[in-house]
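Q: Structure tokens for this one, please.
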Amino acid sequence: MCLDEKFKKNKNRPKSLLIEAVGEDLPKIVKERKNKQGFTFPFDMWLKNESKDFFEKRLNSTSIFNKKFTNQLFYNYINGKVHWSKIWSLIILNQWLEINK
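A: Here is the predicted structure, written as tokens:
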């Protein structure tokens, strides 16, 4: 998947939009790196650690999902039986449904 050329701010610097979006949180060595490397946001770490309570509450705050199911799914995720993307998908779907009632 590629970003359309019209959205690229600096064609000589790969991922310039991502670097700008992250700002000061991105180490200088990463910002100035010339070789292109893959980048993955640490969703698994966020969901299991510092934001666990927030995401668990968010997942259970909807009346659309069966709470018993979401609780079991989250428990299975925390215990390594479910991939983080299933939890993330439900959280994003929940958010979208809240906005688009």
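A few notes: Residues 84-99 form the longest helix (16 residues). The mean pLDDT is 80.
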